[in-house]
Amino acid sequence: MVEEEEEDKPPPPGFLPEWDGTEESLLDALATGRTLRNAPKLFVSATYTYSQQLAEQEYQKKEIRPVEEIVPKQYHEYLRVFSKEASERLPDHGPYDHAIELVPDARMFHSKVDL
User: Fold this and answer.
1) Angstrom distance (rounded) from CA 48 to CA 52
2) Is residue 74 part of a domain?
3) Taking the CA atoms of the chain, what radius of gyration do you get in angstroms?
4) Alpha-carbon separation of residue 99 from 5, 49, 92, 95, 104 (angstroms)
5) What is the pLDDT of residues 8-54, one digit of tens each?
6) Distance between CA 45 and CA 50 in Å, rounded?
7) What is residue 8's predicted lDDT score, i.e. its pLDDT?
8) 98 domain-assigned
9) What is the pLDDT of residues 64-97, one digit of tens each?
10) What's the average model confidence in pLDDT over 98-108?
11) Which residue range(s) make up the domain with 62?
């Protein structure tokens, strides 16, 4: 009976549970701020620099102008190209469309591209 009571007790302060090798337990420990013994070390380097703060302040001051003011008048007939709706859809099919024939069981290879 005494042994059962000891099993139900929470671990003592400073006790580091053993990592069971699963990604799930590692992510759970990370989310709850716990450390696991023998777990791989995770390093997060997130900083907020002074230059980032200045850039964000300037961005917030920026005035949002309509596209008609930004694009020169001689190009206003093409304004639909700059619309959000046009950017979210594919162009219509045309005679220049062609199929890309894939070779069965082909293997990809990597090579350097000389520019």
Assistant:
1) 6
2) yes
3) 29
4) 71, 49, 15, 12, 15
5) 666 666 677 788 888 888 888 878 877 787 887 766 666 778 888 88
6) 16
7) 60
8) no
9) 888 888 889 999 998 887 778 887 888 888 888 8
10) 85
11) 7-86
C-beta separation of 39 from 26 below 8 A: yes
What pLDDT does 48 receive? 74
Asked whether residue 100 is assigned to any structural domain, the reply reads no
In a domain, 61, yes or no: yes
Place of tokens 């302040």: 57
The total number of structural domains in the chain stands at 1
